[in-house]
Amino acid sequence: HQTVARIAAGEVVERPASVVKELLENSIDAGSHRIDIEIKGGGAGLIKVSDDGCGILSDELPLAFARHATSKLSSFDDLSSIGTLGFRGEALGSIAAVAEVEVTTAVSGSPSGKMMSLRGGRGDIVRPIARACGTTISVSHLFREVPARLKFLKSDTTETGHIVTVVSNYSLAYPEVRFKLIVDGRDTLMTPGNGKLRDTAIEILGHHVAARMIEISAVDGSFSIAGLVSAPENSRANRTGLFLFVNRRWVRSHILSRAIEEACHGLLTVGRYPNAIINLRLPPSDTDINIHPAKTEIKFREDGKVFEFVRQAVRAALLGEAP
Ligand code: ADP
Ligand code: MG
């Protein structure tokens, strides 16, 4: 039974950064304003995410770790109109199958919080504790019981890099949330949480790039786009400067990446790439949110229409044309 659970968990939890992604999504779904992330040893040692969100009701605490337990989706039809990042109810259960997990949580108005710890996917001890409204989840010894996975992990520096990427992306997607990342005891990143994309971008991309980024803004029927693209002189030598969100969900998309690169055609030196933060909104029915947790590449119903919309909006911004 444990083996099956661990294999299934591998679908969701590929590396420490996947744990961080799932925990951040849960904290965001919980309506948090402040999310603190602490990691040690590239995340394999410790990942701790604390939020000031709605908390988990005591009765629901053991259930939250059951596989396919979600409080967010009431029927399959909801899939087309999902308003939360999570909906599969797989993450916490999968994480608990391959790590030691400790949760403390409190809901507002409750006189005390609860603490629960899990080992090998099995929960013990639910006991009262004192804490403010919100949830803290600590994940330690990730993959200790799964040597094949542990062997596959790269250096602490590389794994930390993946985690920084995850936190950076969610910071840019949710500028109204204040994110703080501590790596091996060092303050590594802290966003202002003031709702301003540029101020958040200054923290993530640096003042020299973000202060000069150009605003992107366009609407066409049910499609809209907002974001920032770097001034041509702030191009970069690799393709890692794109932060792509569709309906506030972090996505990978060749269509979007190509549309942005096309928009820069002739404006950047050959072999240079833009920095861009793109928030695309379109009817959920025009997208395919993958049921499979590991696949992050988004599909659009009309690729060509999305490509042209994004290309034109970014091009207009770069050429200084009014939206
Ligand atoms: P999903 O996010 O797909 O619902 P998860 O396994 O990630 O599934 O989480 C299971 C449930 O645990 C969630 O539906 C939610 O009710 C609860 N939960 C998890 N993390 C938090 C959190 N930080 N704050 C409040 N509730 C949480
Ligand atoms: Mg979730």
What is this structure, in a nutshell?
The protein has helices at residues 2-12, 16-29, 61-64, 91-97, 147-152, 156-173, 197-205, 207-210, 254-263, 303-318; strands at residues 34-40, 46-51, 100-106, 113-119, 122-129, 134-140, 178-183, 186-190, 214-220, 223-229, 242-246, 249-250, 276-281, 287-288, 299-300. The chain is of the alpha+beta class.
Task: Report what the structure shows.
The structure is a single chain. It is built from 10 helices and 15 strands. It has 323 residues and is α+β, with helices and mostly antiparallel strands. It is elongated, with a radius of gyration of 20 Å. The longest helix has 18 residues, at 156-173. A hairpin with a 6-residue loop joins β3 (100-106) and β4 (113-119). It folds into 2 domains: 2-190, Heat Shock Protein 90 (2-Layer Sandwich); 205-318, Ribosomal Protein S5, domain 2 (2-Layer Sandwich). Bound molecules: adenosine-5'-diphosphate and magnesium ion.
CATH superfamily caption of the largest domain = Histidine kinase-like ATPase, C-terminal domain
Shape: elongated
Secondary structure class reads alpha+beta
CATH topology category name of the largest domain: Heat Shock Protein 90
Number of helices, where a helix is a run of at least 4 consecutive DSSP H or I residues:
10
Biggest β-sheet: strands ordered side by side in the sheet: 5-4-3-6-2-1-7-8
* Name of the CATH class of the largest domain: Alpha Beta
Structural domain tally: 2
Rg from Cα: 20 Å
Portion in strands: 25-35%
